């Protein structure tokens, strides 16, 4: 069972409209984000989430996630420091207010990579982001991508697949996402993502030239 969500209103700061990116692990969110931040270097800021899970090989604390103990994260949640949080496979994940505000304060487009529960929580705030869902072409392809990673046990993989199936069904809810991108071809998916964000990109580019 997912843990109880806590969501407190986050005041809108002056700055570019944030972007909430959601989709199951293996859909290609991380790859698309890296492409976006490479092409538009200096325009986007990545909101680094907190988690209580252990780092995977190659992951860096403070870059991929802020890896903290359950006690530390629960204290932050109790103190109202998080916009959203959820529990998945026994681990807490969450986005802190400070992480978003720090990016917005630098006049950057803040990217939030959020689980489905978090998307619904942010909908209850006044953050007003652009909501984008990145989805795999099929569950079979998603399973292959996850297996090819060779980073999880069979039990963990099956839990992830079950959660992905539920999330993809929820994502069909009218009005939940502004844009849905099916990542069948990486280049095509990237063009769609860039097209969805071009207005904000041009706004930031214009303000930096002024």
TrEMBL record:
Superkingdom of the organism of origin: Eukaryota
SMART domains xref list: GuKc
Query: What keywords are annotated for this sequence in UniProt?
Result: ATP-binding, Cytoplasm, Kinase, Nucleotide-binding, Transferase
A GO cellular component annotated for this chain's UniProt record is: cytosol
Has keyword Kinase?
yes
Check the record and name the PROSITE patterns matching this protein: GUANYLATE_KINASE_1, GUANYLATE_KINASE_2
Instruction: Identify the InterPro entries for this entry.
Output: GK/Ca_channel_bsu, Guanylate_kin-like_dom, Guanylate_kinase, Guanylate_kinase_CS, P-loop_NTPase
Question: Which reactions is this enzyme annotated as catalysing?
Answer: GMP + ATP = GDP + ADP
Name of the protein:
Guanylate kinase
